[in-house]
Amino acid sequence: MIKPKKSLGQNFLINQDVIKKIVNTVDICNKDILEVGPGTGNLTSEILKKNPNKFFVIEKDNKLTNILREKFNSKIEIINEDILKINENNLNNQILTVFGNLPYNISTEILIKWILNLNEKKIWFNYLVLMFQKEVANRIIANFNTHNYGRLTILTNWRLKVKKVCDISPSCFQPKPRVESSLLLFQPKEKFFDLMSSKNLEKVTRIFFMHRRKMIKKPFNQLFKNNTDIAYKLGIDLNLRPQNLEPNTYFQLTKEYEFLRG
Asked: For domain 6-188, which architecture applies?
């Protein structure tokens, strides 16, 4: 029996009904698959039943890597690395369908990294089927003018379509986490707001949401040097709070920021 490591945020999914539901979220027959954080291989086994073409797994834990190697042999290609240090654009020549019971302690970091590193000419995945802590999932799919709405919502909405598949009870894991989980399905958007750099959107949203309960006048002036013509042009009331602006308004603000910087 492998003891899950708290330091790696390990909670192994053991409920077979949930595992089947995850695998059946999208069609993966003859597709190239990437699984992030396979753990002891419960989800891996179910994915293999669908006859994928190539099957990569990324597992940081050396002990789990050895277990997976013994269990699946040449059926999967194991990458024993830290997911945050991998250039996902170089993983495979073909588009990947991605599954992941993401470690909760780095789940948002993984998602933001993937979004900010998206290559406009070649997107490396067609679907992301990912599990998050329910609280985080609610922030990803939040509507503006709600308390869950924030940077994570805006960054996701820029390049990805997302919907909730289902919520998952703590009893479906070993050990049981103290929180509920949610399964989300992401797809790349064919059309999205054109920006020079994803890093600029990251900066603009970070500055605006640094003090999310305060009016946006201060962060606006920090970015645009009191240039109220931009606020007038975009129809923005500077007495609003960050959560009151739609994602598209943040995309427009980023475009204006890029223009001012030349």
From this structure: 3-Layer(aba) Sandwich (3.40)
